[in-house]
Amino acid sequence: VQLQASGGGLVQAGGSLRLSCAASGRTFSNYAMGWFRQTPGKEREFVAAIWSGGSTYYVDSVKGRFIISRDNAKNTVYLQMSSLKPEDTAVYYCAAAYGSSWSPPYYWGQGTQVTVSS
């Protein structure tokens, strides 16, 4: 599956952004979808995941602020980010995992930069 992420940018603290990730090449509904993020010198960090049926899972640091959703008809997954904080600044990566288990191997999209200014 090929993934194309978009929607990053510069936003002030407290603001919002929506990331999108369009998938192609395989049956989208067969994949759990998610987002990771990475800052320089740190490991890539899991942010959120969503299964084809709509179940979701978030890292504690974004609960209540980020919402992951998917549109199976459009082969797209979204990450609505609200109440953004400077520590949310990172390159955000879209990922896909085949089947019902959110575990490697992941398919990766290119990253999109999110910068939150204080």
Topology:
Elements: E1 2-6, E2 9-12, E3 17-24, E4 31-38, E5 45-50, E6 56-58, E7 66-71, E8 76-81, E9 90-98, E10 107-108, E11 112-117
Parallel strand pairs: 2-11
Antiparallel strand pairs: 1-3, 3-8, 4-5, 4-9, 5-6, 7-8, 9-10, 9-11
Describe this structure in words.
This protein has 118 residues and is mostly beta strands. The chain contains no helices and eleven strands. The strands form two sheets. Strands 2, 4, 5, 6, 9, 10 and 11 form a seven-stranded mixed β-sheet that branches. Strands 1-3-8-7 form a four-stranded antiparallel β-sheet, with no helix packed on it. A hairpin with a 5-residue loop joins strand 5 (45-50) and strand 6. The termini are far apart.
Globular, elongated, flat, extended or rod-shaped: what is the shape?
globular
Low confidence ranges:
none
Structural class: mainly beta
N/C terminus separation: 37 Å
The number of distinct helices, counting runs of at least 4 residues, comes to 0
Mean pLDDT across residues: 95
- Written as H for each helix and E for each strand, in order along the chain, the element string is EEEEEEEEEEE
Helix content: under 10%
Largest sheet: 7 strands, mixed
